Amino acid sequence: MFNGMRILASGTREAVELSAAVLAQAGAQIAFADEVTMDDAAYDVIIVSSDTCSVEQRREIARLKASGETIVCDITAMGPQHAGEFTAYSDAQIQAMSGLMDTTGFAHSGPVHIGVPFTEISAALYASATIAAALRVRRVCGLNQHIDVSLFGCALGALTTFLPAAFAGDPVERVGNRHPSCAPWNAYGTRDGWILICTSTEDQWRKIKNAAGIPDLDDARFSTLGGRVRYVDELDALLEAWTSTMTTSECASICERIGVAAGPIVSVEGLAHEPNFALRHEEVAARMMTAGIDSGTYRYVSLFRESRLSSRAHACASKCDGFNLGTGPLGGVKVVEIGQYTTAPLVGKHLAALGADVVKIEAPGGEVSRTWSPGQHGTSYFFALNNTDKRTISLDLKDEDDCAHLRTLLAAADVLIENLRPGALAKLGFDRRALADVNPRLIYCSISGFGIDTAYPSRPAFDTVIQAMGGLMDLTRSDGQPVKIGASAADILGGQAALFAVVARLAAPSGDEGKFLEIAMQDVAAWCALYAAGNRRAARVTSSDVVRVQALMQDALFRNDALSTTTDPDGNSWPVVKLPYQHSLTPARVREVPGAPERPMHRTSAQLSSEREELSALEEAGRRQQVRARP
């Protein structure tokens, strides 16, 4: 992607090093320096952290930004135009100040410091994606610009599971290894350890209830999601009475067979022996077993994998970017999103904020998280926070006409992003070969818990399971007991890695053939955990008051600097979180909360025939390009 790109990294923030490592995975050449000068404008990109620099170095960074001779990305704790603009708060302080630490830990104990530098990692991933977006702008219209990324903004953007309660004026409590809106969802004792079991739909609940075979689970209190959340203590006790009769492996096998997300808590050192990690990263696992974990081990873990969309050769016509400086760095890009909950929706949300035209495909009746409480006007705050600036369409992908409509959308798209279970889209007739026939230049990004090449081909995954099996929970403990990061860390970080991969591919020269991008959330979680485990001699001793999430709502600086208000198509007002990054010339924006998903207009036989003829013509054109591309 970035072969030949020269990037200079300078600054003591971990996010600077981590962003350089991410860009290196895309082929960039990285150099490090203690300080930057105007002579460094010869680099394509300079990554700095001005809040950790001397006053003179800040002046030099400001001159580089103003020169327009190169792209400058400045990663700071608070971002510009803030009361603490030049205060070099640490990751731990940002966790405390943002409410992020308040969400991590058990209800009966105090807040817990997250065991990985979450805000530094999150800022590094957003910085990498926004640098890629700036490189696209330069490729299309020759403009250099500077970028600001805020750790505080990254922390607030990660609170999408907890801010809804604060918006509604409800108390925000730590939930340990539970989920505030779903049950059963927890760590349960087994005969030899712990297993995470997570359900989010009525179908998953019925499957786990039937597998357990405990009559009391048929109690009317548990017949609805709201009831299961309300009586979660009783529910968890009954479920643990079942899991405690088995080993962790036996329970995981049952859950995998019935299609319920489950998995054990894996130590960071134990990743070398974890079947899926060892399969996908054989050399890293071998290195860990012989040499242990050092400060560079994480660099050998791939955040994403890229291959050709189809094994058949396709020659792709050079496409016009349709770029408009006023729409954002990704103006002219068309995206189709088939996703739910957090991961793919996060990618679509940020692609839309960066200027892309994003169409979200929802199942009939809408995405499940639309109905979660609290919310307003029939839509949850959670859904609104994760799906801003998208057009939403309801399609039944088991219906031939709706599939035809999707093919029409894909034929004109630049990007397809999805987080369905691996193979699910292929079963609906949209495998990689079929997608290449419809659109040979398509960038197809698939996000899953364990990847396509996996030891668990039929195992579903949720954030908590990946936190457990990716080493994150091992590093985050309350009184010695592993606990999940309160925010949906594995989902968020996996989505950020996917965002970078997609934008980096869009930044590459046009005319390239279609690409398949694969992101396994476990890979990303392990990358983070191995970095944290190998760089514990880097922690700084700092202190700060731990702010409660609901207290943020009363803070004027938070409301002014971090929150914004937007509307839906009906004119209703919605609170949203501002973006944690900003481009100087092509600013990203959060504009609108989507309304209810629309159904495609009923089409006549003549219209259907015309659409099929158009699709056939596109497929024939692709076949002709394929023939011309053959040697």
What's the level 1 CATH class of the domain at 6-157?
A: Alpha Beta
Low-confidence stretches: 626-631
Please identify the structural class as seen in this structure. alpha/beta
| Largest beta-sheet details | 7 strands, mixed
Shape: globular
Report the count of strand segments.
22
Whole-number mean pLDDT: 92
What is the H level of CATH, i.e. the homologous superfamily of the domain at 6-157?
A: Crotonobetainyl-coa:carnitine coa-transferase, domain 1
| CATH fold node name of the domain at 6-157 | Rossmann fold
- In the CATH hierarchy, the architecture of the domain at 6-157 is 3-Layer(aba) Sandwich
Please characterize this protein's 3D structure.
This protein is of the alpha/beta class. The protein has a domain at 6-157: Crotonobetainyl-coa:carnitine coa-transferase, domain 1 (Rossmann fold, 3-Layer(aba) Sandwich). 39% of the residues lie in helices and 15% in strands. The chain contains 24 helices and 22 strands. It has a seven-stranded mixed sheet with strand order 9-19-16-15-10-11-14. A six-stranded mixed sheet has the order 2-1-3-4-5-22, with helices on both faces. Helix 1 (14-25) packs across helix 4. The longest helix has 25 residues, at 605-629. The radius of gyration is 24 Å and the shape is globular. 54% of the residues are buried. Mean pLDDT is 92; it is low at 626-631.
